[in-house]
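User: My advisor, Dr. K., asked me to get a structural model of this assembly before our group meeting. I'm new to this, so sorry if the format is off. These are the inputs:
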Amino acid sequence: MAHPQEDTLIARQITPTPMRLLVLEVLQRHPAALSLADVELLLGHADRITVHRTLKTFTEKGLVHRIEDGSGAVKFALCEPGCTPEHHQDLHAHFFCTRCRETSCLPTVAVPIIALPGAYQVQETSLVMKGLCENCASAG
Amino acid sequence: MAHPQEDTLIARQITPTPMRLLVLEVLQRHPAALSLADVELLLGHADRITVHRTLKTFTEKGLVHRIEDGSGAVKFALCEPGCTPEHHQDLHAHFFCTRCRETSCLPTVAVPIIALPGAYQVQETSLVMKGLCENCASAG
DNA sequence: CGGACGATGCAATGCTATTGCATTGTTTCA
DNA sequence: TGAAACAATGCAATAGCATTGCATCGTCCG
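Assistant: The format is fine. Below is the predicted structure of the whole assembly, which you can bring to the meeting.
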C-alpha cells in the first residue's frame, strides 16, 4: 500500500482523503504539539478552515487530542493507539516552553488520578507545566 | 474605614480607586473564578477595557491568579494572602464544570510537584479537571 | 445518467484579548 | 493657589483564533 497512513485513518473510521493524509503526515513527523496555524504553515498553504475541520474530525474520532496550553491557541498531538474519543489512555502531562512557545507531550509523566470530595464527577484531567524546555534551558 | 478592601489593595501596592474596589468586591463575593465578561456583567455595565486592565494589574501584583480552563476565556480568582506574583503559595487545582461552565478553585487539592528528566526548568504547573461540579452532578 | 452524500474552500462572522490615544482625576511642588 | 506630572479611565480601533454559511466539487451507488 502506498500510504500506510490510510490504515490509520480507516481504523478510526475516518475516510482517507489527500488532505487528511497530509495532515496526519505532518502530525506524525513533528514531535511537538501543533496549533492550527502551525499545521497550516507546514502544509504549505492549505486552507485554514479545512485543516480546522480535519483536526476536529481527528479529535472526534480519537486520533488526536487537544491541548490547551494557555498560549491562546489550541494545540493538537497524536494519540496513542489505544485511545478513544471518550477514554484517552495513557493520559500524560504536557509541557509548554515559555521561550520557544512549543508544546510537547511528556509521555513518561502520567496525570495523577485524584479523588475529589463530594459529588464531583471528573471526566478529564489536564496537567500542563510551563517553563523552559531542554533546548531553551541549555541555550541559556 | 469605610472600605476594608482598601487595605487589601494597599498591601499589594495597588492604588485604591473606586473601580478597583468594585472589582475586588465582586471577586470576593463570588466563590467561582470569573472571566473578564463575568466581572463586566456583575458590575453592571463597566467598561470592558478598564476591567481588563484592573485584572491585569491585580495579576501582576499577586492579588489574583489567572486560570486557563480551556473554556476559551481566561478566568480570575483571588489568591491566598501569602502569594506573590512570582511565587504562588498553595498552588491548587481547579475544576471546570462542563455543564454550567463554572470554574472553581479546589484549595484542598494541591498541584503535585513533579520532577522532569533532563534540563527542563519548570516555572509553573497547572492542574485542571473537567467534569460535573457538585451542583450539576446532583441535578442530574 | 442522476441523485445523495461527504469533503473542500471561499467569504463572512463572533468572540476574546489588546493597543492607541484622548480625557479625567489626583498628587506634588513651587 | 495654581500648574505640571502622573496614574487611571474610557472610547475607538485592531489583532488573532475559532467557527459557521454557503456554494462547489468529487465520488459512490442505485
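One thing worth pointing out at the meeting: The longest strand of chain B covers residues 121-132.

User: Perfect, thanks a lot.
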